[in-house]
């Protein structure tokens, strides 16, 4: 297949250019639906006249529906998107990129989806689907699964295939709660994932941003101690990789700590720890949940992040654990390969 594609690129390169362009447009309609032509044009930075022509083509082929609320993708359109995915992977050389990034980072496995999450919304869905598929492949009987919070992890849990067999799986939140959105809290995601895997779950009803004195008091609670001991037994962890600056803002860290992170050139955050580009800890938050020492010893760990803006954070976190699996996108991959 690869050799044929390379030959076709030489003989009819315009075919692949048009195919990729139409795939991008259709994927963005799917991700943003319902959406109008002007909004889509602005989103893709393509002239409205060009978008109008492509929309007419898609509509004529029965791939989209157009009404007063905007454009939506039909069932046939979604089938085309899914069917083209592997072909687009081949055109863009995604498999070669996976091998190259794996060598660069020297980690266990790399899974890449096309596109750049920073500018293409549909990439979020592809990253979450790839992670969900990976979880279904890795999960075993009697596993204790840890999961962090965030929108990506919520989408991952939603996409995991519903299991019919009880494998005695337990899902736990890897950290305490952060932020105000219940649907993206680690507790909520753990419950959703457990339901999909026909397993059990435990909840950690503790904020991830408490003072040291309160944390010390809470740790003495028997129920909290029971859950934290269970977290230490996690053998499959799914976690998001955060940028240091954005996570410091989400956690509402004091100005002096933010200044310290800046001076220490922190680029990544995971589990309440902040790291520089070399994977060295520059700041540690006292929080309840999985600790750095626990993370190092977990047999299967899946880190998830995409977008060129996450490149530094990804590079730093992969310095910590060489037997981890990374799910990312083309944007972050090319940024790492070109600049690190």
Walkthrough of the structure:
- With 340 residues, this protein is an alpha/beta fold.
- It folds into 2 domains: 2-91, Arc Repressor Mutant, subunit A, CATH 1.10.10.10; 94-339, Rossmann fold (3-Layer(aba) Sandwich), CATH 3.40.50.1360.
- Helices cover 51% and strands 16% of the residues.
- It has helices at residues 2-11, 13-32, 37-44, 48-60, 75-91, 94-105, 122-138, 151-159, 186-196, 212-219, 222-231, 244-250, 255-263, 292-297, 311-317, 330-339, and strands at 64-67, 70-73, 109-113, 144-147, 170-173, 200-201, 236-240, 242-243, 266-270, 273-276, 281-284, 300-304, 325-329.
- The strands form 3 sheets. It has a 7-stranded parallel β-sheet, with helices on both faces.
- Strand 9 and strand 10 form a beta hairpin.
- Helix 8 (151-159) runs parallel beside helix 9 (186-196).
- The longest helix is centred in the first third of the chain and has 20 residues, at 13-32.
- The protein is globular.
- The relative contact order is 0.12.
What are the low-pLDDT stretches, counting only 5+ consecutive residues below 50?
none
In the CATH hierarchy, the architecture of the largest domain is: 3-Layer(aba) Sandwich
CATH class of the largest domain: Alpha Beta
Tell me the fraction of residues in β-strands, as a range: 15-25%
Number of DSSP-assigned strands: 13
Read across the widest sheet, the strand sequence of neighbours is 3-13-12-7-4-5-6
Computed CA radius of gyration, to the nearest angstrom: 22 Å
Summarize the amount of helix as a percent range: 40-55%
**Averaged pLDDT:** 87
Shape: globular
- Please write the string of helix (H) and strand (E) elements: HHHHEEHHEHEHEHEHHEEHHEEEHEHEH
Family: Belongs to the SorC transcriptional regulatory family.
GO molecular function, one term: carbohydrate binding
Domain Sugar-binding: 92-338
Protein name: Central glycolytic genes regulator
């Amino acid at each position: 297949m690869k050799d044929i594609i390379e030959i076709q690129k030489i003989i009819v390169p315009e075919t692949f250019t048009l195919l990729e362009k139409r795939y991008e447009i259709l994927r963005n309609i799917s991700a943003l639906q319902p959406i109008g032509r002007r909004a889509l044009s602005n989103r893709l930075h393509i002239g409205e006249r060009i978008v109008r022509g492509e929309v007419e083509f898609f509509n004529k082929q029965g791939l989209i529906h157009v009404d007063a609320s905007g454009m939506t993708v039909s069932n046939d359109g979604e089938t085309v998107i899914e069917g083209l995915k592997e072909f687009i992977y081949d055109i863009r050389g995604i498999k070669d990129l996976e091998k190259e990034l794996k060598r660069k980072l020297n980690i266990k496995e790399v899974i890449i989806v096309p596109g750049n999450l920073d500018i293409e919304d549909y990439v979020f869905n592809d990253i979450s689907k790839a992670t969900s598929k990976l979880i279904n492949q890795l999960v075993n009987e009697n596993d204790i699964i840890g999961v962090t919070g965030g929108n990506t992890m919520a989408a991952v849990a939603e996409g995991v295939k519903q299991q019919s067999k009880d494998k005695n799986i337990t899902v736990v939140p890897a950290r305490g709660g952060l932020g105000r959105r219940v649907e993206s809290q680690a507790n909520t995601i753990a419950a959703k994932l457990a339901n999909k895997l026909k397993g059990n779950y435990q909840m950690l009803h503790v904020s991830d941003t408490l003072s040291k004195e309160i944390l010390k008091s809470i740790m003495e609670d028997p129920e909290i101690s029971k859950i934290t001991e269970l977290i230490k037994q996690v053998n499959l962890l799914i976690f998001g990789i955060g940028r240091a600056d954005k996570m410091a803002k989400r956690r509402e860290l004091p100005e002096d700590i933010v200044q310290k992170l800046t001076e220490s050139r922190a680029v990544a955050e995971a589990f309440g720890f902040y790291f520089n580009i070399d994977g060295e800890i520059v700041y540690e938050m006292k929080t309840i949940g999985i600790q750095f020492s626990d993370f190092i010893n977990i047999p299967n760990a899946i880190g998830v992040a995409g977008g060129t803006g996450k490149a530094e954070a990804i590079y730093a976190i992969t310095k910590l654990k060489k037997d981890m699996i990374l799910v990312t996108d083309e944007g972050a991959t090319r940024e790492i390969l070109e600049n690190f």
